C-alpha cells in the first residue's frame, strides 16, 4: 500500500506547455510526495476504506489472503480482524509498533545469520 500527499498536487498551472504534450496544463512526470509505503498483505488487496476515529485517519484493507486489517496513515498495523488476541484503538501507540517491528526484524536477521554459509 502507498499513501501520497496530494494536498498541493496539480494546483498550479505551469508557465508554458510542453512540446510533447501541448494540451497538458500540468506536469505529468513529477509524482506527489509519498508519505508511507508498506506490504499490507501476502496477497492482492481487494478493497480499501478510509475512516476517521478521534481525529485519526485510519485505513481498512481486505485481501485475497482472507485477512482484514486496520492501519494508521503511516502504515502501522493496529490490528487484524479475526485474530486470536484482542486489540483496541485506544491502546495503540505507533511508537511502540515501530519498536516492535524493529525488534522483529533484528530477531529475523539474527536467525538468518545462524544459517550463513562461509
TrEMBL record:
* Keyword Repeat belongs to the record: yes
Give the start-end ranges of region Disordered.
98-118
Q: Which domain of life is it from?
A: Eukaryota
Cited Gene3D superfamilies: YVTN repeat-like/Quinoprotein amine dehydrogenase
Alphabetically sorted, this entry's keywords are: Repeat, WD repeat
Protein's UniProt name? Uncharacterized protein
- Native organism: Ciona savignyi
